[in-house]
Write a structure and sequence with these properties.
about 325 residues; alpha+beta; Uridine Diphospho-n-acetylenolpyruvylglucosamine Reductase, domain 2; Uridine Diphospho-n-acetylenolpyruvylglucosamine Reductase, domain 3; Uridine Diphospho-n-acetylenolpyruvylglucosamine Reductase, domain 1; four-stranded antiparallel β-sheet; 6 helices; globular; binds flavin-adenine dinucleotide
C-alpha cells in the first residue's frame, strides 16, 4: 500500500490502496470511475489522514496559467493543480496586485475557493470571478459564478451543496488595476505607506516567524475555525472575561479568536503524546514527529470539550479529517 505521509502536511503515517496523479479532467474522470472509494487531494495542507484510507487518493496536477487584461482589470485563469503561493508570487512579479495578503498559504489553487482561504484581512473569494468544475457523477463541465459560490468565512458552496460532488478544474480570478491595499490587520498596520510588494514581503516574514514550518513539524495550519457567536453571548462572556477579544462580523454576530480561547483554557504549548499545541500560535496543532491519528483526535476532542465547558462555545475543526472510509466528523 502506498504511503500518504508525504502527501499531507501533518505527515501522519497512513497508507491507501493507490495514489493516482491526474493532469486533466478526463484523466480524473477515468480514474474516479475505476475506484470504489476516492478522495481528491491537492497539496494535503488542510487534510489529515488519521489511519489507512481504504480507497484511491486522486492528486490534482492540472496545470496552466493564462492572463489577459482590459483597461480596468487583469483576468487570470489558473489550473486547479497549480501551487497557490507560486501563483501569488507570479502575480507580484507581473504587477497584478490584490492577493499579496494571501502570500505563503500552502495548498493548491483548486482548493482555495473551497474554504475561501483568508489571511491578514483578505479572503480570496473577493478576487474570484468564477470556478470551473466537473460533476463527479456525470463528468459534466460546469461554471459557478462568484456570486453563486456563497463565499463566507472559511466557507463556500463547495463545503455545502457541492461538497463531494465536484472536482474543481480551474479558478478564474479578476484583479482590479486600481486597487487599494489592505493594511488594517495587526502588524501590517504598522507599515508606513507600503507598496503591494512590501505587504507581500511582510506577510511572508510574519508567517515565517509565527507559524511552524510543516517541513519541520507537521501541521495543517489552523486546526479550528474561529467561532462566531451572537453579540449578546459575547457581551455575557465579556462580563466574566473582560479582555476577551471579538470582532463584529454583522450587527448581531461576533467572531472570537479560537487561539485566545485555547490559550485561556491552558492548552498553549501543551503536549499530548506526539501532538503539541503550538507555543506561539495555539490554534495550530503540530506533529512532533511520530504522532498517531488517534492522538490527534483525542487531543482535539479534549480541547473542544474544555472550551465548551469553560466558555459554552463549540469549536469546529477547520481541517478535513480522513479515516478508513473517508471524511469523519470529530463530534
Ligand atoms: C502552515 C499552514 C498555514 C495555513 N494558513 C492558512 C491561512 O492563513 N488561511 C487559510 O485559509 N488556510 C490556511 N491553511 C490551510 C490550507 O493551506 C488551505 O486550506 C489550502 O487551501 C488547502 O489546499 P490543499 O490543496 O492543500 O488542500 P487539500 O488538503 O489537499 O484538500 C482540502 C479539501 O479540498 C478538497 N479538494 C482539494 N482540491 C480539490 C479540487 N480541485 N476539487 C475538489 N475538491 C478538492 C479535498 O478533497 C479536501 O476535502 C494553512 C495550512 C498550513 C499547513
Amino acid at each position: 500500500m502506498p504511503s500518504l505521509q508525504s502527501h499531507h502536511t501533518f505527515s501522519l503515517q497512513a497508507n491507501c490502496l493507490s495514489i493516482v496523479e491526474f493532469n486533466s479532467a478526463d484523466a480524473f474522470i477515468s480514474a474516479y470511475n475505476q475506484a470504489d472509494h476516492a478522495y481528491i487531494l491537492g497539496e494535503g495542507s488542510n487534510t489529515l489522514f488519521l489511519e489507512d484510507y481504504q480507497g484511491t487518493v486522486l492528486v490534482n496536477r492540472i496545470a496552466g496559467i493564462n492572463h489577459f487584461d482590459t483597461e480596468s482589470h487583469h483576468h487570470i485563469s489558473v489550473g486547479a493543480g497549480e501551487s497557490w503561493h507560486g501563483f501569488v508570487s507570479l502575480c507580484m512579479q507581473n504587477g497584478w496586485y490584490g492577493l499579496e495578503n494571501l502570500a505563503l498559504i500552502p495548498g493548491s489553487v483548486g482548493a482555495c475557493p473551497i474554504q475561501n482561504i483568508g489571511a491578514y484581512g483578505v479572503e480570496v473569494g473577493k478576487f474570484i470571478s468564477s470556478v470551473e468544475a466537473v460533476l463527479l457523477t456525470s463528468g459534466e463541465k460546469i461554471i459557478i459564478k462568484s456570486a453563486d459560490c456563497n463565499f463566507a468565512y472559511r466557507d463556500s458552496i463547495f463545503k455545502n451543496e457541492l461538497a463531494n460532488k465536484v472536482l474543481i478544474t480551474q479558478v478564474n480570478f479578476v484583479l482590479p488595476k486600481m486597487y487599494s491595499l489592505e493594511t488594517s490587520y495587526g502588524e501590517l498596520s504598522k507599515l508606513t505607506a507600503p507598496t503591494a510588494q512590501q505587504i507581500f514581503d511582510a506577510v511572508i516574514a510574519i508567517r515565517k516567524s509565527k507559524l511552524p514550518d510543516p517541513a519541520q513539524f507537521g501541521n495543517a495550519g489552523s486546526f479550528f475555525k474561529n467561532p462566531v457567536v451572537t453579540t449578546s453571548q459575547f457581551e455575557t462572556l465579556k462580563s466574566t472575561y473582560a479582555d476577551i477579544p471579538g470582532f463584529g462580523v454583522s450587527h448581531d454576530e461576533t467572531k472570537i479568536p479560537a487561539a485566545w480561547l485555547i490559550d485561556q483554557a491552558g492548552f498553549k504549548g501543551k503536549v499530548f503524546n506526539q501532538v503539541r499545541c503550538h507555543p506561539t500560535q495555539p490554534l495550530v496543532l503540530t506533529n512532533l514527529g511520530n504522532a498517531q491519528g488517534e492522538d490527534v483526535v483525542t487531543f482535539a476532542k479534549e480541547i473542544i470539550c474544555e472550551i465548551s465547558r469553560k466558555f459554552n462555545i463549540k469549536l469546529e475543526p477547520e481541517v478535513r479529517l480522513v479515516g478508513a472510509k473517508g471524511v469523519i466528523d470529530l463530534v
